[in-house]
Amino acid sequence: STYELWVPLLNGGAVVVAPPGRLDVSTLSRLITDHRITGLLVAAGLFKVVAEEAPEAFTGVREVWAGGDVVPPAAVERVIAACPGIKVVDAYGPTEATMAASVHPMAEPGDIGAVVPIGRPLDNTRLYV
């Protein structure tokens, strides 16, 4: 998405693209380490798999955004426990808003809840129900 490309580039960062082929947890972990990735945007399903198999794979990442589906609270808890100092952000939005119209940041267990909330609207965004 344009978000994944422009946000890092317009803020002095770099974009790292995974190599072609199957992306498994060990490959993702190696990419994070080798490229010193500090911010990451992943699909909720991939976030859940990494949290179940090797939550420490996100070590060194300051902020990981997960979206595109429901983000399981247990997955967030596992990642926060394995990676002190990390912030997990639930990014929610309809297809028409690309990936995110609202976000809910979580940096400690008290931020999570029984169900991860969809959060508050992004800047300059309004939500209507």
TrEMBL record:
Pfam families assigned to the protein according to its UniProt record, in alphabetical order: AMP-binding
Residue ranges occupied by any AMP-dependent synthetase/ligase domain in the UniProt entry: 3-129
GO cellular component terms attached to this protein's record: cytoplasm
GO molecular function terms noted in the UniProt entry: phosphopantetheine binding
Signal peptide (residue range): none
InterPro entries the UniProt entry points to: AMP-dep_synth/lig_dom
Origin superkingdom: Bacteria
Record GO biological process: amino acid activation for nonribosomal peptide biosynthetic process; secondary metabolite biosynthetic process
SUPFAM superfamilies for this protein: Acetyl-CoA synthetase-like (SSF56801)
Classification via PANTHER family: FATTY ACID SYNTHASE, NONRIBOSOMAL PEPTIDE SYNTHETASE
Protein name per UniProt: AMP-dependent synthetase/ligase domain-containing protein
Source species of the chain: Streptomyces silvensis
